[in-house]
Amino acid sequence: MESIFALIFLCVTGTHVSCSPGPLEDVVIDRYDIPRVCPREVQTGDFVRYHYNGTFTDGKKFDSSHERGAPFSGQVGLGRLITGLDRGVQGMCVNERRKVTVPPHLAYGSIGAGDVIPADTVLVFDVVLLDIWNTEDKVQTRTLSKPESCKRLVEATDFIRYHYNGTLLNGVPFDSSHSRNGTYDTYVGMGYLIKGMDEGLIGMCVGETRTIIIPPFLAYEEKGYGTVIPSQATLVFEVFMIDLFNPKDDIAVVVKEVPKTCTRKTVVGDYIRYHYNGTFQDGSGFDTSYQRNSTYNTYIGMGYVIQGMDKALQGLCIGEKRRVILPPHMAYGEKGTGEYIIPGSAVLVFDIHVIDFHNPKDLIEIKVTSKPKKCNLTSEVDDLIQYRYNCSLMDGTLLYSSDHYENAPITTLGANKVIEGLDEGLRGMCVGEKRVVIVPPHLGHGENGAKGVPSSAVLHFELELLDLQKGVPDGYMFVWLGDSPDPLFPAMDLNKDLSVPLEEFTAFINIQVAEGTGRLRPGMDADGIIKDMFNNQDRNRDGKIVAEELKLKVEEDSDKARHEEL
């Protein structure tokens, strides 16, 4: 009896065992193809799905699930299979192949099975196990890779976007989002997915890859799914989480860098220039302003950008860097956009660097950094000035500097020789004074910009007044600084001969300038100006002025009575 038991044990447990001839007492198992990895073996009470070929010992086939195109499904060890197969499949692994030889008394015995299987026949089954599960099974998850930082996990009611490969338990693929080149997008825990997938996705991070094994009763159960998922099939999904958000989400802001001084923050109605990198939550990029070498310029809170960005751009300082995360309902929604290849329901991540901002109602800002103690004379419209400057963008990028030229620039204030904001910023200065002037674009180079100056750029000027010559109003060459002599002609007629030639007229004007009672237009040739003034009064062109010819401009334009000119 002991020798018989040993023979039976050897035949059941060995691989490629040849048993001695004679009546079989038990099944003989030949495990001729065993997978390297076998996480689970068939036990009593398990449900199995397998293909088989059934033959007699002479090799003649009597049945085949392969030929029917449908594997066998049943429960093991509860009398639902012939006893020999019940024993023969126990301990099997998925994808294992074994030959099970069943003696008659463990098959169809002395009765047989109709005309197909004679009485007292030994049966040989060539079996490949496709699936195994139990009613006590739960969803199994195994993380394959996970990002180091995981600030948020998938929860019920979240909306997620993920890629997946779906296979049966034996590795046969049935579906893949990768082959469709599109993520699977859905709500979690709200019944849009099979129960096991709803459960298996909970707790995932964006960027995580995990395997989810779902028993049939939490998948497609007896019905299966079309021709790709058979009845009572265990499903294996390899999932890569691309994106997640909740419909109740607001924008999320992470401040990366804030300048030490921030005198003003953006508000609705401001116009902002900023650089950005746009990525999805998995880190893949979709757009960047840096690549175009141009800032993105827009009004804030006025609907010119997506809703989330409109909100995220408020409360920033010039020079600030922040990351903003926009849920789809505050970005491009379910449709996405083809312009930057943004899929539907995508969470967007923007890394923003604020270059500058202004408001269309802004005036220039002036900050005096240095001023002489004695300041009796200040610049004003019509004055001729010489000044030093550095012109930069608000991020410190130098555009122009007077130091790059041999001589500092000279200009007449109010004569439209420089941009409006700079002209205004140069007024009211003493010689030797230094100041910083911030010029908004509508008082600078506007939306069109200029050579080297970006569109709608706020300009930062460092100014120093080097020289100041008081001027005269536009259209005048000489003005009296007080009341003119009355009568004027006798004062001009220095030698009292009742006529004033050019030389005598020149001497008279120079005396007025020297004594501070009159002023010539600065920045021009004095002799040329005086000659023009003389010619204006020498109406008969005889080279001299007489009393009858002399007229003051004030007589011709009473509105300029304080600026009497010859």
From TrEMBL:
Q: Does the keyword Calcium apply?
A: yes
Main location, first listed in the record: endoplasmic reticulum
User: Which GO cellular component terms, listed alphabetically, does the Swiss-Prot or TrEMBL entry include?
Assistant: endoplasmic reticulum
EC number(s) on file: 5.2.1.8
Q: Which GO terms describe its molecular function?
A: calcium ion binding; peptidyl-prolyl cis-trans isomerase activity
Q: Which InterPro entries match?
A: EF-hand-dom_pair (IPR011992), EF_hand_dom (IPR002048), FKBP-like_isomerase (IPR051989), PPIase_dom_sf (IPR046357), PPIase_FKBP_dom (IPR001179)
Domain PPIase FKBP-type: residue ranges: 45-133, 157-245, 269-358, 382-469
Q: List the keywords (alphabetical).
A: Calcium, Endoplasmic reticulum, Glycoprotein, Isomerase, Metal-binding, Repeat, Rotamase, Signal
Task: Tell me the compartments it is located in.
Answer: Endoplasmic reticulum
Q: Give one Pfam hit by family name.
A: FKBP_C
S-adenosyl-L-methionine recorded as keyword: no
Where do the EF-hand domain residues begin and end?
525-560
Alphabetical list of PROSITE patterns matching this protein: EF_HAND_2, FKBP_PPIASE
Specify the superkingdom: Eukaryota
The catalysed reaction is: [protein]-peptidylproline (omega=180) = [protein]-peptidylproline (omega=0)
Annotated signal sequence range: 1-19
Name the job this protein performs. Answer: PPIases accelerate the folding of proteins during protein synthesis.
Record's protein name: peptidylprolyl isomerase
Which species is this UniProt entry from? Salmo trutta
Q: What is the lineage of its organism?
A: Eukaryota, Metazoa, Chordata, Craniata, Vertebrata
